[in-house]
Structure formats: C-alpha cells, structure tokens
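Dear colleagues,

As part of the handover before I leave the project, I'm documenting each prediction I ran so the next person doesn't have to rerun anything. This entry is a single chain, and its sequence is reproduced below.
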Amino acid sequence: MAAVETLAERAYLSLREQIIRVNLAPGTVLREDSLMEQLGVGRTPVREALQRLQRDGFVTVIPRRGTLVSEITLTDLAAIYEVRKHLESWASRLAAERAVDEDREVARGLIAELEALRPSEGYDALFTIDRRIHRFVYECTRNRFLTDTADQYHNLSLRILHVAMKRYASLTPRLDEAVHQQRTVLEAICRGDGDTAERVAIAHISTFERAIREVI
C-alpha cells in the first residue's frame, strides 16, 4: 500500500507542477491512459492523483466530457487572492513571532540568495526562490494545517500568474520590486517584527493581484 501511495504522490506533484506552469493549459482533457504512459505509473496512482487535484481545485470532472484542467475566471482570481491576503498576513505575523534561531539563520541565507539574483536569470529563478520563501514562512508558523492550506492557495495563485503571463508579457514581475518585498518580510522575521511582516506580505500579494487585474 505504501508503494501505491508513493507513486500517487509522485503523480500528483508532477501533474500539479505541469498545471501550475501551464504545460497543461486550462481546459486540457486529462486521459488516464496517456497520463499512465507519461508518468510511468499504473491506473490507481493516476486516479488518486486526479482525485487529489480535483479536491485542490486544479482539475474539474464534467459528465460525458471527462477530467479537465480547471478553467480560470475573474471570480476565481478574486476569491483566491482574498483568501491569500488573510492566510499570508497571518502566517507572516506568526512566523515572525515564532521563529527560532535556526529559522533566522535560514532566513538570512534566503536573503543572501535574493540579493544575488540578477535580471538575466529570468523570472523562473525568482519564482523558484519565491516558492521556497513562502514555504519557509508557512513552516515557521509551526501550524501544519495553516502551512498546507497556505501552500495550496499559493500554488493556485501561481497558476493564475503563469496563465496571465503567457498571454500578456507585460505581467512578468519586476525583479527588484519582488525581491525588495520578500527581503523585507524575511528581515522582519529575523527581528521578530510581526507588524511589518504582516503588512509587507499583504503588499506583496496585492502587487501581483493588481497587475493581473489590469490586463484581464
């Protein structure tokens, strides 16, 4: 049973990443046989992965049409970012209040990586460290339920951003602004400054939401 669960987890993570990065675009029909061949796993792990993706909001099951990658609407955009503003602000405040010396050492390492980023590395490099920072903040809360929920909504919002950027190149985030906001959150965590961490986390999310709304 454990082996099946491991294969299902691997299938889930692979499909989720393809959906987030729009390698599987909204509306794409997901056929079990094709996914089994692509992922190199059996039918049961694929079905379990699809069920989990459906629960997370990444895929939709439509009678007589099958399983499709979920479409994105303005209603989804508003709802996801509304939830994220509350989750991220709360998580950032808790992270600043609950971080220990080991966490602060990790935060300083992430700050150094941010400062070393160069525009020539492209937005993929920024998104990679951005996801690590968000996950780090969530884990500093010492609340696994908050961590898992915040991570789910972060991934949903990343998919929206990737979809939008494929259509509108102008949405590619400005590296200096994104880096500054993330660095400020990490510095606030190092100081134990929950007020600043909360305020800047909201600003960071709002920056991307406004940019997407301007072109959609």
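The chain has a mean pLDDT of 90. Residues 33 and 78 are 35 Å apart (CA to CA).

All the best with the project,
I.
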